[in-house]
Amino acid sequence: MHNTTLPEENGSSLFPLVLSIVAAAATGVLWTYANPIQLVPGVIQWRIFAFLPPLIGILLGWKSGFICGYLGTIIWSLLAGTFIPAHSLIVDGIAVGLTGMIPGMLFNPATTTFDKKTLIRIAAVCLAVGLVMVVAVSASLAFLGIFPFWWAVGYLGLSDIVPMLIGTPLLVASAQKILTAAHPSGFKRF
């Protein structure tokens, strides 16, 4: 069964591009200021909005998901005072960008019905891409001498993977309905 509520038309991809940049800014700000649960006080917070890049990727397209994750990471690191050029621009930015890109490549609302089986697959993809991201970021932080590798894996896994694993499948169908209501003629994913 296919769902055609967000058809991919030959129209402009300006809408998802602009929305992905807005979502990236929101992601960076939310990661900086709306994480009340401190896993390691002053260092690592539980990112309750870590689901935003994969959600944006699924709804708006894989490029939009990458933009949301990459720019969101850069904005967060600048606002939080944790910007490290090589780490933030290369490893962290790209790894978090992939958490938005890969789900966006695998799931398209124009051809996917968000039934229970699909939501479980979305959670599995978020888990897999989250693990890759956490390992890459932890290796970078260990290489730079900031945190021990396994320490970083544990805390970053809790910080990012848990919210992606729960939030993305929980919110994707509702977010799709909101987008459809706001843009009933559809748009080209970016």
From TrEMBL:
The chain crosses the membrane at residues 14-34, 55-78, 84-107, 119-143, 149-172. The keyword Membrane applies. Keywords: Membrane, Transmembrane, Transmembrane helix. This is Aminotriazole resistance protein. It comes from the Bacteria. Coiled coil: none annotated. Gene3D superfamilies: 1.10.1760.20.
